[in-house]
Amino acid sequence: MSCSKCSDPLLVADALTCVSCEGEFHFACGGMIEQNFRKLNRNAKANWKCFNCKASPGSSGVALEDKLEALINGMRKEMKEEASATRREISEMISGLNGKLDSCLMKYESLNGRMNEMIANFESNNFEFDRRLSDLERLRADGQSSYNHSLNLELTVAECEDRRRRATNVIVYDIPESALKNVLSATEEDLARIKQSLEQLKPEFASLLRRLTRIGKFVQGKCRPIKLVFDLPSTATDVLIANRSTQSPVFSASSDRTPSQRAYLKGLRDELARRTASGEQNLTIRYVSGVPSIVLKEQSKRSSSSLPKNDPHCA
């Protein structure tokens, strides 16, 4: 291939591609020194623009679209990587079932339930992503440029980014506060307790924990929740599934919800209280296709998972 500016041959390692006109340039022809070019990350290269496109009318008007497009592409890639990791894990679990028949029969029900929940969770996330992507593309196609429209897009992007950051987190409750005065020593004691609990669920969970921290200010006589940060979103999901699958959960835990998710759950609880007070019976809150909803208790037993009880983080 050749440079769009000087027409000389162009190596892939030295190329910059304009996100607007798709022209390919030597980094020097694009106005960049080699030191700065080598420091560019993948996202910066993917959003680079040539001089002509930067100077063209209306180029600033698509800045939000460029940012949104980059975020959508990043989310799509993360979804594919997570799907690939999930498929690999499922494949490895199935291959391991070639052991003794008695062991297979004992583990089949638990394994099958876990696989179904993982698949349902993935399909729910995929459906939610496709829905948001369709909404964003429809809004972009409408060509609206009002302040409110731009603000809504920014809020949606911010919410998606916040949920992505929290996807590796698990919130654990009711772990007693350390009596040690030194903050570092108290944290080490919390870490030892949490790792011991994780090993009860699955030995490798403890090694996948990256860090933990207490949430909020210390108040005498109260236990602050602990935020656990794992290596991958799939690990955080596996920990929650494993904890719910035990006859007696090792600890009280939930996913790390955004303020919007917690506000939505609070609204559902208020609505449930109003409907119950008005005489409706057998209603409860359950997750249906990954979304908390008010359903009949009989229906929830067939098709949904329960909302964690006594979860102060989502109140």
From TrEMBL:
It comes from Apolygus lucorum (Small green plant bug). InterPro entries: Znf_FYVE_PHD, Znf_RING/FYVE/PHD. This is PHD-type domain-containing protein.
